[in-house]
Specification:
Strand order of the largest sheet: 13-12-11-15-20-17-18
CATH class of the largest domain: Mainly Beta
Structural class: mainly beta
CATH architecture of the largest domain: Sandwich
Number of domains: 3
Bound molecules: CU-O-CU linkage, copper (II) ion
Number of strands: 32
Strand content: 35-45%
Number of helices: 3
Length: 453
């Protein structure tokens, strides 16, 4: 449904059996009965209203990851949708927020450029469990600038959601506990580092094979795994010896110019928008997308079966993709330091020594001010900030890394590293969160509030 300025979407969150592995039904929590949830496509400059109805037996929160929207539609942990059937679960009154019963309208003003976003659950303390059970979907924002480029379009513009899951013999998800929280009996130290699966799913299917013609394709790669990082490579690499991937976009949309990579490291929640040209392969080649950071059976992600069709390819990758404003760190008005580490002497995770308490604000930022945020780590932490995209200015081992280009909302903070990003919040005053996107770290306290005025 649409009117002159607004497009309307409806999503029902409900339990459903989903077939991930052939012949096995897996009880899941879903958006509209499928995994991934329906791909929402909205237009920059138009308002989108997404009505989420909660038919699950627990409170939910929806967050549009990478979205630029007012605080009351951002999915703050206290802004829950309680089950509509009036079932037992009540709101934890110690968490500030505005709980509603049954359904909530999320309003996205559309004041942002084309980008690959995704929506997922953000329940406080349970995000790992709910996302693992299926609450994730793509939300693509399109605009005239991106549409006008001669990049592959239509059925050659394909979002790829990569997740890892473990299944019990009867098909049930083998997630260790609803609350991966160390006070819950039966949950061991193993989960402190996050929950890994041993089956890689791409758009919900294990090791899928995609038939491709000998032409260019655009893939919007999203790592929606709870904590697994992937090192993506093609095997065999293109026989011409030139770099494999041409990256055209990152979390926040198009790069200014294309960038090439032999392999791409993708931390949880990061997006890489890449073009692959299968005309570089001989007809009949099976090209495997492999994971060089594999453990167990997670070395194979998917494969592409190159057909003998070579349609005339009218696409191109322009040298100039977009004009991207450069955030100059020398113009910053303040610097903030955030330490991401396990909580001293206590199992769990924290930012600046504070395990997450809603309402405890670690940064009060002024809208329009350019700030530098420095993140320091003990182990790997994919750090994510809500509300605005940012730019990586440096890492302790030098400048921005090879996967830091463009507008980012999630960065792969490496072990024992410090990095700095330039960020400027705009438009919406209110309360938001930033956190580690290793979802078990997030659930175990590695999150904090910031406010904008
Ligand atoms: Cu993708 Cu606050 O999360
Ligand atoms: Cu987010
Ligand atoms: Cu972490």
């Amino acid at each position: 449904r649409s009117d002159t300025a607004t497009d309307y979407y409806e999503i029902t969150q409900r339990a459903a059996d989903v077939e991930y592995l052939p012949g096995l039904r897996t009880p899941s929590w879903t958006y509209n009965g499928s995994f991934p949830g329906p791909t929402l496509i909205t237009r920059s400059g138009r308002r989108a209203v997404v009505t989420h109805r909660n038919e699950l037996p627990r409170p939910v929160v929806v967050h549009l990851h990478g979205g630029h929207m007012p605080a009351d539609s951002d999915g703050y942990p206290g802004d829950t949708i309680l089950p509509g059937d009036g079932s037992s679960v009540s709101h934890d009154m110690s968490v500030p927020g505005n709980p509603v019963v049954g359904s909530r309208d999320y309003v996205y003003p559309g004041k942002q450029r084309a980008a690959t976003l995704w929506y997922h659950d953000h329940s406080m303390g349970f995000t790992g469990a709910t996302v693992y059970r299926g609450l994730a979907g793509f939300h693509l924002v399109r605009d005239d600038e991106d549409d006008a480029l001669p990049l592959p379009k239509g059925d050659r513009d394909i979002p790829l959601m990569i997740t890892d899951r473990s299944f019990a013999a009867d098909g049930q998800f083998a997630y260790p506990s609803l609350a991966p929280n160390l006070t819950v009996p039966g949950v061991t130290d193993d989960h402190l580092n996050g929950v890994l699966g041993d089956v890689v799913l791409v758009n919900g299917a294990p090791w899928p094979a995609l038939p491709v013609d000998r032409q260019r394709y655009r893939f919007r790669i999203l790592n929606a795994s709870n904590c697994r990082r992937y090192g993506l490579r093609l095997d065999p690499p293109p026989p011409d010896g030139d770099p494999t991937f041409t990256q055209i976009g990152s979390d926040g949309g198009l790069l200014s110019r294309p960038l090439t990579h032999e392999s791409i490291d993708v931390a949880p929640a990061e997006r890489f928008d890449v073009v692959l040209d299968f005309a570089r392969y001989a007809p009949g080649t099976r090209v495997r997308l492999v994971n060089t950071l594999a453990t167990d059976r997670t070395g194979e992600v998917m494969c592409f079966d190159v057909s003998d069709r070579t349609p005339q390819d009218t696409t191109a990758i322009p040298d100039e993709l977009s004009s991207v404003e450069y955030l100059d760190p020398r113009q910053a008005v303040r610097t903030r330091e955030f330490l991401f580490q396990s909580q001293n002497g206590d199992p769990g995770w924290s930012i600046n020594g504070e395990p997450y308490t809603p309402g405890t604000v670690l940064a009060h930022s002024r809208l329009g001010d350019l700030e530098l945020w420095r993140f320091t780590s003990d182990v790997h932490h994919p750090v994510h900030v809500h509300l605005n995209h940012f730019q990586v200015t440096r890492r302790s081992n030098g400048g921005p890394g090879p996967y830091d280009a463009g507008w980012k909302d999630t960065v792969d903070l490496l072990p024992a590293q410090a990095m700095e990003v330039a960020i400027r919040f705009t438009d919406y005053p209110g309360r938001f969160v930033f956190h580690c996107h290793n979802l078990e770290h997030e659930d175990m306290g590695m999150m904090a509030d910031f406010t904008t005025i």
